[in-house]
Amino acid sequence: MRELPQKEANLFKQILKNYELKQYKKGLKGAEQILKKFPEHGETMAMKGLFYSHLDKKEEAYEFVKKGLRYDLKSHICWHVFGLLYRADKNYEEALKCYTQALRIDKDNMQILRDYSLLQMQLRNYEAYIETRHQLLELRPQNRMYWIGLAVAYHMMGKNDLAVKVLSAYEDSLKDIPTKPDYEHSEMLLYHNSILGEAGDMQVALDHLDSIDKHVCDRRAVREKRAQYLMALDRYEEAEAIYRGLVKENPDNFAYIEGLQKSLKLYFPTTTTTSSSSSPSTPASAPATATAQEQEKILALFDELQKLYPRSNACKRLPLRVATGEAFVRVADAYFQHSLRKGVPSLFVNIKKLYADSDKEKACEKLVLDYEASLKEHGRFDAKSSDSGEKEPPTALLWTLYYIAQHYDYTRQTDKALAYIERAIAHTPTLVELYMTKGRILKHAGKPKEAMEAMNEARELDLQDRFINSKCVKYMLRADKVADAEKTATLFTRVDIADPLNDLVDMQAMWYSLESGESHMRQGQMGKALKRFHQVEKHFFDFTDDQFDFHTYCLRKMTLRSYVALLRLEDQLRTHPYYVRAVKNAVQCYVMMVDKPEGCDTKEMEGMTEAEKKKHRNKQRKAELKAQKEYEERRAQIAADPTKKGKLDEDPEGMKFLKTEDPLGEALKFLRPLQELAPNRIETHLWGFEIYIRKKKLLLALRALLKAHALDANNETLKKQLLRFAEDVKAAKDIKPSVKAVIDNHWATLYGKEAVGH
């Protein structure tokens, strides 16, 4: 039955309103009233399932929605509700299928079309998204969001000319243009201008910027864009005036200072790494290194800027990148003395990038060693001025020793680094940074236990510092002291939850998951390790999912430039080092599970006899039973304590990951995002080979090797894999002739025809 009597039809409209107002319990009661009289009304049954979904009864929700569909398969409401259930569970592909069915029944339903377009953008199906946006625009041409959504779709597809046409058509249709600057209108105009800039015709972009100038609220963005366009058009004097104004506002912005240099035709030897979208690109004519004459002009510019902005660190730091020889020593001397006198702990971090130049590294070393000798003997940085002037504060020697220790650590002269850091600690035994640096030196020396002890000393000096506590936890995990690390980590987690370590998961502390997983992996505890690596994978899934609400919000609030930046960030999010590291470790774990299905021996078992191994495994088993008993006791305590929130971890050992029937398939799920987003990383293909060769997918394994070979033919791991592949092909007896021909063809391409068969 589809049609309801008037009374029940009105009640059904009311339960739809209850859903919109999030009155789920009230709506559920209304649905049950209708179903008492009409138990086979499909749409009401589906709505009941939707209410159950929002009341955390997922199984019942799916059951009722599926029943509703069986009763009324041609109802767009039933299909729409089914899609909403899948969408709530982040199953966007299935939700998209349900919306497609709903639109076949009611093709002009605005609500379904809106939801449909959001899923298409989430899945980056731009072509279909454009079609849906066109349909929405035809149905409601007066709605601004539909115009803007279509423009964004064309922009993301790289069709900037069509995006500009859509925005221009919308702007031409506006009757009430704000007379005063209006934020949302301003953002739309700036977005329009940014597309013109990306299209490459800077004169058109500049003319458009001039035409919208009076309507734009973000005055700084206008100036940044204008300077960028003027530079591209070789109108350097006009660009210089703008950049000088920007530097005056923010003299620590590297992009502004670099822009000023370029407007004066003075270029850095290397371009500045900056997140600013306004940073102008280096002209093709920029030299690889600055000439002596140009270097002199650049240093003169920075002398001028330092006088104008004496508190700017950038104006003091940037000349070090340009200066060479005696000029570098002069500039570095002033920078070092100022920082050591003030006690800047991050001095070495600021300087170490310069060590890529061996001459600058030697110059820095000579300067600080001279400072140390002079401070020790005369109390001043410069021994020549020892008879006049005030002496430096006692902390100057301390920070000099601190820098020298970091310098020797960076150059891996560990004994010297330890000697200097011990002298610094003897000078001021209460400074936390000294113990942290000592721990770092010991870590680089390959002494994780001693490094942990040094970091713990630092932690005990300041028990209220969360950063130092986290560092200490990391070092404990690297020393495989997992129990101590967990105890230390929970000092800064919530005390009112059942499992404090879950607080770290809720806070998406990926460093902890990675370090803990790697420690478990070293100890052969693959279940626990995989549990941690899957936590990292889930965090990245959550990051991707979090963008969903912005597809509507950003179009409504007109934060379009930020929205496009978000989409582009999300598109390459899984190339982040944390994800790459999790993939590497997870693949190794799954591969090890295939290679050693009986269990993975720990390092402690290497070199043991069979009897010793058996004894060691018995000891491990007893430890696991003890841990299980403690877990049960803890569970009972929490059940009896009403103040504790949440639940204990139901699978602390990660057994569900160990019990997987297809470990290589699980490894591939981790790897696929890298195959799509990071094909230029050789590790992507090396890890792919390890999976495919075990799955007996010889052509896929060969493709991985070919891609890796194209990136780095001399990679040592690749050479071993090539040999292994050749041996596996030679040993295989059931290779199809067509597959063998493809392999021989590619092998001949790599090593010549004479290599085939050998």
List the helices and strands and how they pair.
Blueprint: H1 6-20, H2 24-37, H3 42-54, H4 58-71, H5 76-88, H6 92-105, H7 110-122, H8 126-139, H9 144-156, H10 160-173, H11 183-199, H12 202-212, H13 219-232, H14 236-249, H15 254-263, H16 292-308, H17 313-317, H18 319-322, H19 325-342, H20 347-351, H21 358-378, H22 395-410, H23 414-427, H24 432-444, H25 448-461, H26 466-478, H27 482-489, H28 501-506, H29 510-522, H30 526-546, H31 550-557, H32 560-571, H33 577-595, H34 610-640, H35 655-658, H36 663-677, H37 682-694, H38 698-711, H39 716-731, H40 737-751
Offer a few descriptive terms.
single chain; 758 residues; mainly alpha; Serine Threonine Protein Phosphatase 5, Tetratricopeptide repeat; 5 domains; 40 helices; 71% helix; 0% strand; globular
**How helix-rich are the residues, as a percent range?**
over 70%
Strand content: under 5%
Unreliable stretches: 270-287
CATH topology description of the largest domain? Serine Threonine Protein Phosphatase 5, Tetratricopeptide repeat
Number of E-state strands: 0
What would CATH call the architecture of the largest domain? Answer: Alpha Horseshoe
Number of contiguous helices: 40
Q: In the CATH hierarchy, what is the superfamily of the largest domain?
A: Tetratricopeptide repeat domain
Structural Rg: 33 Å
Q: Please identify the top-level CATH class of the largest domain.
A: Mainly Alpha
Kindly report how far apart the N and C termini lie: 73 Å
Quaternary structure: single chain
Mean pLDDT: 88
Number of domain modules: 5
Estimated structural class: mainly alpha
Largest sheet: none
